[in-house]
Write a structure and sequence with these properties.
Strands 1-2 form a two-stranded antiparallel ribbon. The chain has one helix at about 20-65; strands spanning about 5, 10-15. The protein contains 1 helix and 2 strands. It is mainly alpha-helical.
Amino acid sequence: MAKMIKLDDTEYEVENLSDTAKATLAQLEFATQRLSDLKNMGKLLQRARKSYISTLKNEMLAEKAGLLFGED
């Protein structure tokens, strides 16, 4: 089955595209994948940030109360 690309409700066979169009399609696919990777990295960094904030809050409370929270 031939690889197809859909633009403005029209489908095109990739193998029938010009070399320039194929190169542009490759760049589009790269940019799309990179955006997806960056979104995933953003989610990971948000999770890490929340964890750091939580740890910092616990540390500050422990210091103020003279107790260790969440440690055995």
